[in-house]
Amino acid sequence: MKYIFYFIVILLGLSLVGMGIRILFFPVNTATKMIDMAYDAQDKVLDADNAIYNYEWFKQKYQDIEATKKQFKNAETSYSSFKNSLGERSTWTFEDKTEDARLRTVSLGLQNHLESQIADYNARASMATRNIFEDSVLPNYIDALTFIKQ
Known about the structure:
Elements: H1 2-24, H2 26-45, H3 48-86, H4 94-125, H5 144-149
Helix pairs in contact: 3-4
């Protein structure tokens, strides 16, 4: 019985010593984990597949933006030429008004899509883990208002 009591006291003592050592080294353990996480994040960011994916994403997204910009300009030109060919609005037929509304809707839809693409590009370009994959040819930021009006 006496040995069981000593055993329990020793076991509790060792537990308290172990807990004290853990508390004492908690800051070191936390710092080590943070450093390990930073290295893991760096490995994931600089992974070859990730680098290629992000580089290609920026190239593809920029070309998508350019293509949508051309579509938007074509829609604007089409709308302008249609509107100029009709003359006074009071003489328009129902079909003319319907076509006018359709062309304006197409133009507005393309403008909204273009602005969404630009916002997506700018969001990725501002991310520290992604902007390192842009090349010097691509812009770091696209201003939607001036870009669309060009």
